[in-house]
Amino acid sequence: MLDNAIRYSPVSGTIELIVEENKQNQQVQFILRDEGEGISPNDQLRVFERFFRTDQSRSSQSGGSGLGLAIAKSLIEKHKGEIGVRDRADGKQGSEFWFTLPITSEKNKNAERLL
């Protein structure tokens, strides 16, 4: 996701990584915000599919196989997390990719191993 943010943002653009803990849901959320062209609502629905690339002409110039986000989704879901993309919440141009992962303590990890 960070590689995509760098690749598709303007040279002078800002990329932000925000990390938030949600103690109530026992999750940590990561938000990666860029200032690129953004992703259309239709493409947002498909961007995590294997081999999907948004704009073929733009994608062929910047490289990439269309597998990175599909792999990220698979890994995050295997760790009981969620992943998604949306327009920037602050109204600026660009996208926000986010993912959550559960927070587990060592005590909980040991209990899970026994099951």
Automatic annotation (TrEMBL):
Does the keyword Chloroplast feature in the UniProt annotation? no
GO molecular function list: ATP binding; phosphorelay sensor kinase activity
Q: What is its EC number?
A: 2.7.13.3
EC supergroup of this enzyme: transferase
One of its Pfam families is: HATPase_c
Catalytic reaction annotation: ATP + protein L-histidine = ADP + protein N-phospho-L-histidine
Q: Which InterPro entries match?
A: HATPase_C_sf, HATPase_dom, His_kinase_dom, Sig_transdc_His_kin-like_C
Histidine kinase domain ranges (all copies): 1-105
Task: Name the SMART domains for this protein.
Answer: HATPase_c
Q: What is this protein called?
A: histidine kinase
